[in-house]
Structure formats: C-alpha cells, structure tokens
Structure of Cysteine-rich CPCC:
Amino acid sequence: MAHLCPVCGFDGLEEPPYDAMGNPSHEICSCCGFEFGFDDQSQGDSFSDYRKKWLAEGANWFDPARKPENWSLKEQLRRIGVER
Ligand SMILES: [Zn+2]
C-alpha cells in the first residue's frame, strides 16, 4: 500500500508520513527529499515552504532511480491540490 507525500504529491511512500498519534515516519520522500520528523520539526519547514524551495531548485528527484518514466510534475501536484 502506497502513501501520498503531502509535500510533492508522490504516491510511493512506504509508510504514512505520520501515524494516528502524529508520530512522523522518518521516511525520506524519494521524490522531493522531505524527511517527515526532520524537515518539518528540526528545520521548521512547512510543506508549502519546502515545496516552493524544491520547485525553485528544479523539482529534482531525491532518488532518481524511483522516478517513473512517464512522470508528470503537474499531475503529481494536482493530486495534492497544488496548481503550478
Ligand atoms: Zn515528496
């Protein structure tokens, strides 16, 4: 079962970013590189701040090996209600 990244809309997270108690998974998104429990807490970035930075830097994949061949940034962002 895949989970959606609230930062970039990638639907390949192995675990939910936060459990029912609100504990972060500490998983790093293969797409945007956001680490739940680190970038949101230690770094204090909100999802939208991080997303803006990520997009400004060219929306590069953290783990390019996992990038789907027919990947569409636009479609992915639409999944989380972000228009670009
Ligand atoms: Zn992501």
